[in-house]
Amino acid sequence: MHPTATSWFDRRTSSWRDWPLDRVARLKGDATVTVALATLDDEQTVGEIVDGVRILADQTGLVDEVVVVDSGSQDGTMKAATDAGATVYHHGDILSEHELLPGRGDAQWKALMVARGDLIVYVDADLAEFRSYFITGLLGPLLSEPDVSLVKACYDRPHPGGQVTELMARPLLNVYFPELAGMVQPLAGEYAARRSLLETLPFAVGHGVETGLLLDTVLESGLDAVAQVDLGQRTHGGGELAALGEVATAVLHTVLERIHPNDPRWDTLTQFNRVKDAITAVDRPVGGGKRPPITTIPQYASRSS
Ligand SMILES: O=c1ccn([C@@H]2O[C@H](COP(=O)(O)OP(=O)(O)O)[C@@H](O)[C@H]2O)c(=O)[nH]1
Ligand SMILES: O=C(O)[C@@H](COP(=O)(O)O)O[C@H]1O[C@H](CO)[C@@H](O)[C@H](O)[C@H]1O
């Protein structure tokens, strides 16, 4: 490993076991915490995750609110999340005068408009096994280290999980940003950050969001502003290969945008299907847009939350 990455890894990696609930609750002080979920057709999983966070909120006060921003689910996601006790928004109802854009990054960005917390914990809404220590673990370094602004989850991902991480994100970061080679899960959708950081950064609207936030945090605040917490194991995966190709391309765009900002980049990924004896090209839009730092949106300063 690059020596800078090795020393960062040693300084800034902890385990959820280092952050028991009573310790994290003591550290919380006056800070307020929002758990935010971006959803799209997650009716099978979102209720249990919200439920788990609500129990933590009601029984310990560690979490102040659970907010869901839905990207336009066609299933019962919004009802399941509401029934479990989250405050649920359709993405079109937040900053509705702005162009509606698809994507999880956009929903995470919009969550900043409606969340009240000083600290925001994002959790993927399609986790099959949510554990409350995901929240306590991610909050631990933020609450105990004033210099840390972004805490990423890390975990083992049994095969075939995490293929984009292993085949695109980590190789690419190792080549261009070797000081980040100690990041176990740079794409993790479970991460916690200070609002004061998130509100100053652009958000890729799609699957590039985590890569962009990670790189921009390091570029602007230095490597030590980032920590990672081992949450054990995350079992999810084997996403359809074509969809993973789209995620991989979004990651590639996001990294290249930071290295060669003025280079042209083609925003379509061509994939192929076989229909009977013919191979047919299927174009997917990729690269995606991005939202500016939310502090540049006038309604942000006057929001009611
Ligand atoms: O437009 C979107 C696309 C995805 N997601 C959520 O982002 C998480 C991860 O997305 P996805 O399942 O596409 O990625 P995977 O983890 O399968 O690669 C899930 O909770 C999705 O519901 C979202 O909120 N809006
Ligand atoms: O690393 C990967 O290959 C992808 C997909 O992993 P899985 O096939 O869901 O285990 O996971 C990353 O990207 C997802 C979409 O942006 C996020 O939801 C995951 O949190 C992230 O680890």
UniProtKB/TrEMBL annotation:
It is an enzyme of class 2 (transferase). Keywords: Glycosyltransferase, Magnesium, Transferase. Its cofactor is Mn(2+); Mg(2+). Its EC number is 2.4.1.266. It catalyses: (2R)-3-phosphoglycerate + UDP-alpha-D-glucose = (2R)-2-O-(alpha-D-glucopyranosyl)-3-phospho-glycerate + UDP + H(+); an NDP-alpha-D-glucose + (2R)-3-phosphoglycerate = (2R)-2-O-(alpha-D-glucopyranosyl)-3-phospho-glycerate + a ribonucleoside 5'-diphosphate + H(+). Residues 55-150 form the Glycosyltransferase 2-like domain. The keyword Amino-acid biosynthesis does not apply. Residues 285-305 are annotated as: Disordered. InterPro entries: Glyco_trans_2-like, Glycosyltransferase_2, Nucleotide-diphossugar_trans. GO terms for molecular function: glycosyltransferase activity. Residues 296-305 have a biased composition (Polar residues). Transmembrane segments: none annotated. Belongs to the glycosyltransferase 2 family. This is Glucosyl-3-phosphoglycerate synthase. It comes from Planosporangium mesophilum. The lineage of its organism: Bacteria, Bacillati, Actinomycetota, Actinomycetes, Micromonosporales.
